[in-house]
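Example 3.2
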Amino acid sequence: MKQDNKNPFKGRQFTADIILWAVRWYLQFPISYRDLERMLADRGVTVDHTTLFRWIQAYAPELEKRIRPHLRTTNGSWRVDETYIRVKGEWVYLYRAVDAAGQTIDFLLSPKRDAAAARRFFRKALGQAHTVNPRTITVDKNAAYPIAVKAMKREGELWRFAKLRQVKFLNNIVEQDHRRIKRLVRPGLGFKNFQTASQTIAGYEAMAMVRKRQVAIAPANDMKAQRDFVAALFSTAA
């Protein structure tokens, strides 16, 4: 269903607060759609797991887009790595970067793991309002990264003094951060297609940024503040 920009919940059978409650909980905790169906039933809300799936596909990427302008600025020490996600029985690559403080810089799901994919990821990350041109980029021994960085410096897309460090142990912070995403993906037993995976992961990453204190007005452990913040993003009453 195409969303109305003024009222993104127009035409939905359920109210905005119920939909956003379900979306927030699914994107924050390792539960399946059937688990969430039972949780809502316990609150007196009867909604099928297939409807919950449609809600996530509609509102997870929209949530990520609306959260972006509210993110704190990350620092110039980038830690970049890829992890694997299963889509339609095959492995694809989730590029992710955090700064030295563990704050999420950006992410990109890619069918390939090569220099072109690395370059797409860096371009996407550099285009975000909450990021800065990196002083250092720490990666593993993947040969694609030096190729991508060299090409981007040559074309003026990346600061020419940015230092690329291929030191695996320095990337523990981003490797640890992968676990958060892996834990959320696991109950779903893989994704059916690339678009579904990309849209759901956008929501996972958005709520992870909130929980990592990247939004000043939504403290990490204040669920009420987070609820109110998400409601405000969609211009609804909490």
